[in-house]
Description:
Layout: H1 13-39, E1 43-48, E2 54-59, H2 65-80, H3 98-133, H4 142-175
Helix pairs in contact: 1-2, 1-3, 2-3, 3-4
Amino acid sequence: MEKRPRIKLELNFHDKIVDWIGWGLLAVIWFFAIYGYVYLPETIPVHFDIAGKPDGYGNKISILFIPFLTTALLAGMTILNNYPHIFNYPVKITELNVVRQYRSATRLIRWLKLFIALIFTIILLSIYNAAINMQTETMQWIIPLILLLTFVPVVVYLVSASKNSKKLVSEKKTRK
């Protein structure tokens, strides 16, 4: 494994806002999970088919799985974001591009944390809504939304990282 520089990145205002929104959504998840555990019926929908209809039911304690999983994911990604030198990058990391690539990669992780919190918030509220209203149909757009929120940031990052790399190469050539 190549030796990469270890640098401390300062978060800008935008990065801090994205982080705070993600953690705020986690607080919403915990609130609705605990509230749901107290007030939901004993049996709740715990699985939905591709059309968004509940097709699996379980005990209401299973609603607490969502905040625990979300907390573990957000905490793990937060810790991981402190070590950008261990990430995989689509370009070679050099002294010229290290700050730009690390910042871009940590920003991707930050946005993915936010989107994971948003996805689990939507799932929790869908379970809550289906359990309270005894709906047989919920939102059909959940799966496309999950795919969109998962893959679009990664594609944007890969395109951005590639452009940044090409830009640095051209800047390096003009300096010579």
